[in-house]
Amino acid sequence: MANLRPWLDEQGERFRVAEIVVKCGPFRAVIPDALSAAWDVVREEHAMTRDSAITINPTAITVSCADCGHSFDARRPVFKCPNCGGEGLSFSGGNELYIEDIKTKLEE
Amino acid sequence: MCETCGCGEPDKPEPTSQSPIGKDLLSNNDRIAGHNREHLRRIGAFMVHLTSSPGSGKTTLLEKTVERLKDKLSIGVIEGDVATENDADRMRALGVPSQAIVTDGACHLSAKQVHHALHHLTEDAKFDLIFVENVGNLVCPADFDLGEDYRVVFVSATEGDDKPEKYPPIFRKADALVISKTDLLPHVDFDVAKVKKHARAIAPRIRFFELSSKSGDGLDEWVNWLLSIVPK
Fold first, then answer.
1. Would you say B142 and B173 are in contact if contact means Cβ atoms under 8 Å apart?
2. Are A7 and B24 within 8 A, CB to CB?
3. pLDDT tens across B115-164, in order?
4. Of the candidates A26, A31, A90, which has its C-beta nearest B201's C-beta?
5. Which one, B22, B58, B137, B232, has least CB within 10 Å?
């Protein structure tokens, strides 16, 4: 979250941040509570973010079975195909860790 | 430090007029990691990153590796540790230049820490091969690119054969998996084929080494691989 500091510094008092939305995939070693705690530290440093919340949206990985061709989304890697029981599975996606949206609100 | 070697100042944050939306949260670390690679190319060194849970045998394998390669390659080591320089001292005892990074509690190394260590290590010496041994942890090091050329993950026979299932991120970006302490396989329930199958599902191009630093089994294949990946 510290990566955001310079950008927040640049914004000054132009607007207030209501919510920051982070997309996070299962192949990233992120502990949601730790990410939230990191945001708690950063948001306190800036008036524009002081009342903001963080939302962490987990993404899925796409699992493909080489044995039966079944393809499905999963929240974490699985090693046995639920369709045929095969173990020839491969994974795609799930490497995301980025800010998906910054929701702002007008000054009160 | 970077002012004196002319490699720039990667520790400074990037210019930021761009919106952070869509940008990886670790982009700053990744930028410094890229700088570390540039630095390594400039000094003609190659870097291998070793990572695993504590006690899997990284340092012991490094000792055995250095013994076998010291006449063929110039080797330096960066040792990450939470609270001591024990591992760096073990390397120094073998005559290997070693730079310690004591994290004082942090559970992983960052590219920035390795950048500083690289400068200290390479200030007065030239290396063909630099090892960086991360803090023992199978979770947090996964996301931090250090600027290495190859990343090697360890699983020891005593840890259990479900590690790729339980800790997928660290295997996802691994180039090689060392299954260590194989001399203990007769005494523990550890299914080597299962570990390989699950690791390969997570990282299809991963290569495997089965070895024992104690018995020496598998070490030839390991050091020959290292010799093959270091540019001549």
1. yes
2. no
3. 999 999 999 999 999 999 999 999 999 999 999 999 999 999 999 999 99
4. A90
5. B232
